[in-house]
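TA notes, week 10

Several of you asked for a full example with nothing omitted. So below is the full record: structure tokens for the whole chain, then the designed sequence directly under it. When grading your own attempts, check the secondary structure regions first.
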């Protein structure tokens, strides 16, 4: 079954003919090739681009292996661009040794609009700005959002449960049961993702890389830093890894799109804390499978899913902290309250708190406390697991159920 991906298709359409190479990045197997070769190609053809003006080349396909020779690929595309405006989609560009000169040469051709994908072991988000002399335009693709996932499970009463358990990797649509889904995800981590990191960066301490990956999976939604992770590995696993090596390995996992780091931000002080951050998995299903479906704390899974949704919608996301001063036993005490997410887009901002439930007034008051202490006019949202009718309370906080938040395209602005 095909799943439409309107957010990413729009990003590609908005970047058409902008003079840059469109570099489609994202964790492996999240649907980059399908987006370009099926959905975007279909858009071009349905909007009047002649079929012969759309070239798709898959460098991992034996039928296109001749184009692994860069001069041959350049000559073909140059000849086509000379005849008429051409859209070229090159899949797995990293298979061409030293592909950067080729891409920079193609960018000089009039009449050629270029789109490329590549595996994370060679073509990463951090490379885009430098590899193509400032003419690389990145489109970051993520696994299925919940709304995309639901479109393939119409009428299923278990969609949310399955999404929190298995996540949104596209190939899971072909896996009918738990055993096959778990096996696929576990092999994806061990044999594709982590092997990619080892190959690209020449990682020597593979066991420690695995342990760091596992620690991040286990601590989703918790503040951490390289020192804390190193100390955990020392005490629990007997590792001798140092803080700096942990820091380097964390950067490798981020650049492979396996985790995102959300920095800690002082909302009132308007500054970042450098010492602590939260790491969120690219996909909760990958995280759960790696932990062999232990530690299925629904609140942390919800938090990860909401984080991924905010990033999918194009927002920058930090972890918020608000200082609260109060009198206790005649003494002035300062507390640090956490806002799960401070999401920004340009000059707009949203404060988002995630809670499994607010069954009693005390729990509701606790979950809203940090939002109320923010004390500014930006929108404040409490996302709960219960299927509540979205409503604003007397303090202006929007209380909304998780499914409504994820499915509502305008749920941030209700």
């Amino acid at each position: 079954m095909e799943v439409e991906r309107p957010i990413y298709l729009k990003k590609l359409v908005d970047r058409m003919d902008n003079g840059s190479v469109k570099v489609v990045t994202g964790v492996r197997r999240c649907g980059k090739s399908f987006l370009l070769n099926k959905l975007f190609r279909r858009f071009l053809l349905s909007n009047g681009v002649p079929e012969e003006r759309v070239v798709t080349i898959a460098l991992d396909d034996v039928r296109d292996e001749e184009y692994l020779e860069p001069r041959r690929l350049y000559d073909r595309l140059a000849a086509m661009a000379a005849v008429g405006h051409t859209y070229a989609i090159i899949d797995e560009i990293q298979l061409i040794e030293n592909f950067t000169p080729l891409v920079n040469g193609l960018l000089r051709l009039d009449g050629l609009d270029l789109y490329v994908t590549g595996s994370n072991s060679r073509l990463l988000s951090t490379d885009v700005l430098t590899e193509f002399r400032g003419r690389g335009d990145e489109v970051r693709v993520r696994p299925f959002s919940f709304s995309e996932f639901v479109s393939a499970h119409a009428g299923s009463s278990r969609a949310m449960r399955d999404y929190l358990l298995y996540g949104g990797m596209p190939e899971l649509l072909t896996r009918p049961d738990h055993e096959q889904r778990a096996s696929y995800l576990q092999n994806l981590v061990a044999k594709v993702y982590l092997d990619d990191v080892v190959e690209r960066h020449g990682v020597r301490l593979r066991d420690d890389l695995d342990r760091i990956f596992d620690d991040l999976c286990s601590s989703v939604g918790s503040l951490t830093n390289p020192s804390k992770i190193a100390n955990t590995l020392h005490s629990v696993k007997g590792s001798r890894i140092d803080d700096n090596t942990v820091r380097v390995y964390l950067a490798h996992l981020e650049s492979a799109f396996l985790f995102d780091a959300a920095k800690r931000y002082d909302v009132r002080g308007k500054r970042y804390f450098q010492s602590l951050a939260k790491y969120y998995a690219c996909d909760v299903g990958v995280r759960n499978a790696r932990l062999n479906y232990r530690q299925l704390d629904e609140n942390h899974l919800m938090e990860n899913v909401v984080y991924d949704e905010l990033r999918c919608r194009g927002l920058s996301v930090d972890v918020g902290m608000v200082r609260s001063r109060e009198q206790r036993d005649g003494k002035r005490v300062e507390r640090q309250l956490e806002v799960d997410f401070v999401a920004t887009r340009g000059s707009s901002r949203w404060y988002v708190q995630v809670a499994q439930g607010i069954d009693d007034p005390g729990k509701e008051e606790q979950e809203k406390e940090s939002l109320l202490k923010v004390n500014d006019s930006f929108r404040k949202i409490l996302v709960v697991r219960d299927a509540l009718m979205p409503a604003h309370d007397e303090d202006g906080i929007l209380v909304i159920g998780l499914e409504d938040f994820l499915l509502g395209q305008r749920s941030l602005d209700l």
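The chain has a mean pLDDT of 92. Use that as a sanity check on your answer.
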